[in-house]
Specification:
Chain lengths: ~260, ~300, ~290
């Protein structure tokens, strides 16, 4: 589906990230379309996928290239500015604040919604809007209310993943970046997660980008796939296009075609 | 001119003691890579031990030997008790444990020796004045001051020799580079850490005895005060860099000697602290050696 | 022990408590701003200078001292944050400022240099200090329930992630640092108007140790630990007259021992959770 007429939600242009002498991200360009749907970034470990996420969210400043959010150049901006521009993410493993309850974790992000300007609004406790958004997000991901006051260490892995997703969607981002959300889940849990992700793109209209190793999952839910290896973008396109791409097959898919 | 040269000599003496303490200090930081603030207390313990040796045995050599060895043993204990259990924790914990141990040492000395009154080394030994003439200019130096320069030089050279040429030194350098790789090569990192602190403490103990010989009175808290000045030296020269520590120590000695005529004593201390602020703000990596600031 | 000296003991310990809680704020976020003795000194000197030489009302002078100390913390921590200092470097940086202040005070005639500032009007009473201490404690309890408190916990838990959810990290940290410094300054003002005679050397390393060690001993996870630590290592030993000269060594030894065996201190998150579960009866697994 061509998104050329629309401004892409998120764009990476010729990004370069160097650690010492190694290029972790080498001249990578990505266009994440605006329309609700799911994109995936795949590739072997060390290919630079998480680094791309770090660049997109402003954690790492690229040595070259640009980040464009919703048509605005956000290169070099701080992570909190990029969040308020509409990009949210989760992390490999789960990085919830260990000593805040699930609800407080989500509410922390809810208070930073773009509608609140920075400054004083960030600190003074105003219930209302933030509380509403928090409860919406927690309900949307399917976490039962009995868990909302629990500390993260009392939750199962899936529940913690869901809480992390709730924290990310609470301000209705335009792009949601999920770093290996399915890692460590069993089949039933993965199915539940996939159903949730697909539902989310419809209900919130946001674009989800997942980094994943589970090829079956990726092929099932993603409409758009980018393949990376050694910091470079190998291929980009629909699942069918990528599956048929020779370079990809050679570098990655070919050796793992039986991998579930 | 003779005043100037005299100040040069004074600067060398002060600088030599700073260098002696700084070398050990920087070694600990470079090898153990942990916060360590018990060096000053070990120095003072060495001074007190040296005094006892002096009163019993009557010779400077004995005092030096006892002070040095006693401090080295104390260093082993400090490493074992205050550092080894908390190496993996964050900086605050190691800071508090080493400061706690230092406090214990200092308070013990205060409570047990002369009811906390400052101690003095007998005047007759250290204060004997020697005169020399260089190019027709008269210079005065006390035996104590001469001892400082000679002993400091000998010890620093000895330590450098140990680090560069012995098996122990190689192990220390390996651990300083990467404790993980060193342990994979069969080096017992814990033992090396202990020995490193012992070596550094030996130098501090010697410096304590030398301090006793050159300064009229020492109280248990002199070391704490000195420690921060030496920390400035270590930061200046770069953590883990022995040449940097020597250079920095001698430089600071000179600056203090030169400033002695012009600035009140307490303002001279200000210099060390402001130096640290400036270094940490502008060049956290110092001139040589590894960085103290972790960049995310 | 006479009633007078009991009152003196309690006043001083409460003042220390307020200052220590000011130090607690940065420490609990793992930001090693150890300049608390300096912020205390700022509050002590400025408020005393105002009431003694300029006849400013006590309350105003206290506030002025507090604000000045908060500003001092802002400067020190602002600079440190600017160059992204961490850990030991941060500690040395802030300590250098505190010590430099002490040295400068030793040389400034207007505040008596090393001879000290004398003739400070007596304004601090037990009632006042107790009221302020209680207010501060309530404030800390309440803080944990506010957004700023949640932010503090979040920064302590995982500083890296905080800005990614839209929080201006530096601004938040600086606000908390300023608050900590201001509390230190408030305590300092109360101190100088109680002891009526202050010298720069009162605000050195010994003060820092007396404030910091008991807190780390007690545990930095929640402020209850700081309070408990000060009670055990500060307050109670004062009652035992024979212990007076051993106070410091006992404090150091106890802290060292606890840190070796239990690096998080006496009272940790788990301790508090355990206590809470005891108070509410055993907690069933949340129903799913």
């Amino acid at each position: 589906m061509s998104a050329a007429a629309q401004v892409p939600a998120l764009e990476l242009r010729a990004a370069q990230v160097k650690f010492g002498g190694v290029a972790a991200v080498n001249d990578v360009s990505l266009r994440i379309p605006r329309a609700g749907g799911i994109s995936a970034i795949i590739g072997p470990n060390g290919a630079g996928k998480t680094t791309v996420f770090n660049v997109l969210t402003g954690i790492i400043r690229p040595s070259a290239g640009q980040i464009v959010v919703d048509g605005r150049d956000m290169t070099g901006r701080r992570p909190d500015e990029i969040f308020r521009a509409g990009i949210a993410r989760t992390f490999q493993g789960v990085r919830l604040f260990a000593h805040l309850s699930v609800r407080d974790n989500v509410q922390l992000a809810a208070r930073s919604a773009p509608r609140h300007p920075g400054g004083a609004a960030v600190w003074f406790d105003r219930q209302g809007e933030a509380k509403r958004r928090t409860e919406w997000a927690l309900t949307e991901v399917g976490l039962p209310q009995s868990l909302w006051s629990a500390m993260p260490d009392r939750l199962t892995l899936l529940e913690r993943r869901l809480a992390e997703i709730a924290r990310a969607i609470t301000v209705a981002p335009i792009v949601l970046l999920l770093d290996e959300p399915a890692a460590g889940l069993n089949t039933a849990e993965k199915d539940r997660l996939c159903a949730l992700l697909t539902a989310l793109t419809v209900s919130t209209g946001c674009r989800i980008v997942v980094i994943e190793h589970d090829m079956k999952l990726v092929m099932a839910i993603a409409q758009h796939i980018a393949v990376m290896n050694f910091g470079c973008l190998l291929a980009e396109g629909t699942p069918a296009e990528v599956r048929g791409n020779e370079a990809v097959i050679e570098a990655y898919l070919g050796t793992r075609s039986h991998h579930a | 001119m003779s005043v100037f040269l005299q100040q040069v000599v004074n600067g060398l003496v002060i600088g030599a003691s700073y260098a002696l303490v700084a070398v050990g200090f920087t070694l600990i930081f470079g090898v153990l890579r942990v916060v360590y603030l018990a060096h000053g207390a070990v120095l003072v313990a060495g001074a007190y031990l040296g005094l006892f040796a002096l009163s019993w045995l009557g010779s400077i050599t004995a005092a030096l030997a006892v002070g040095t060895i006693g401090a080295a043993l104390l260093g082993l204990v400090v490493e074992f008790v205050a550092l080894r259990p908390v190496r993996q924790q964050n900086h605050l914990i190691a800071l508090v444990t080493t400061v706690s141990f230092a406090t214990i040492i200092q308070e013990t000395l205060r409570l047990t020796v002369q009811s906390g009154q400052p101690i003095s080394y007998p005047d007759n030994i250290g204060a004997r004045l020697l005169q020399a003439e260089i190019a027709g200019i008269k210079l005065h130096v006390t035996v104590g001051q001469l001892a400082v320069m000679v002993v400091a030089l000998v010890l620093v050279v000895a330590l450098t020799f140990i680090i560069q040429r012995t098996w122990l030194g190689r192990s220390i350098r390996a651990v300083a580079d990467s404790p993980l790789v060193a342990s994979m090569l069969g080096i017992r990192v814990n033992a090396i850490s202990g020995q490193t602190v012992a070596l550094a403490s030996a130098l501090a103990g010697a410096a304590g005895v030398l301090l006793g010989l050159t300064i009229p009175a020492i109280d248990p808290y002199v070391g704490e005060h000195l420690q921060f000045k030496v920390l400035a030296v270590v930061l200046f020269g770069g953590l883990g860099s022995i040449p940097g520590a020597v250079l920095g120590g001698v430089l600071l000695g000179f600056v203090e000697a030169m400033a002695a005529g012009y600035l009140a004593t307490s303002y001279r201390d200000l210099f060390a602290f402001m130096t640290m602020v400036v270094i940490l703000f502008f060049r956290p990596s110092g001139l040589f050696g590894r960085r103290l600031v972790e960049r995310v | 022990m006479g009633a007078g000296s009991l009152e003196a003991l309690i006043i001083i310990q409460l003042i220390y408590l307020i200052a220590a809680l000011g130090h607690y704020l940065p420490l609990s976020m793992n930001q090693l701003d150890v300049g608390i003795a300096g912020y205390f000194a700022i509050g002590a000197y400025i408020s005393a200078f105002l009431t003694r030489d300029h006849e400013v009302a006590f309350a105003l002078a206290l506030i002025a001292g507090s604000v000045a100390a908060g500003a001092g913390a802002l400067i020190v921590d602002g600079l440190a944050t600017r160059v992204r200092l961490t850990g030991f470097a941060y500690a040395i940086f802030s300590l250098s400022f505190a010590e430099s202040l002490r040295i400068v005070l030793n040389n400034v005639e207007a505040v008596g240099s090393s001879g000290g500032l004398v003739g400070i009007p007596a304004h601090t009473t037990l009632t006042l200090v107790a009221a302020i201490a209680v207010a501060v404690l309530i404030g800390f309890w309440w803080l944990d329930r506010t957004r700023l408190g949640h932010l503090r916990t979040a920064i302590a838990d995982d500083e890296f992630v905080v800005p990614i959810f839209g929080v201006p990290l530096t601004a938040t940290k600086l606000m908390i640092f300023a608050l900590g410094g201001a509390l230190g300054g408030l305590a300092g003002g109360l101190y100088s108007h109680y002891v009526l005679f202050i010298r720069p050397d009162d605000f050195g390393f010994a003060l820092l140790i007396s404030l910091q060690l008991p807190m780390v001993f007690g545990g930095l996870d929640r402020f209850y630990g700081a309070v408990a630590g000060l009670l055990l290592l500060g307050f109670i030993p004062e009652f035992v007259r024979e212990l007076a000269q051993y106070r410091l060594i006992v404090m150091a030894a106890a802290t060292l021992l606890v840190l070796i065996l239990r690096p998080s201190g006496l009272i940790t998150h788990r301790t508090i959770a355990w206590v809470k579960s005891r108070l509410r009866g055993a907690q069933a697994e949340p129903t799913r």
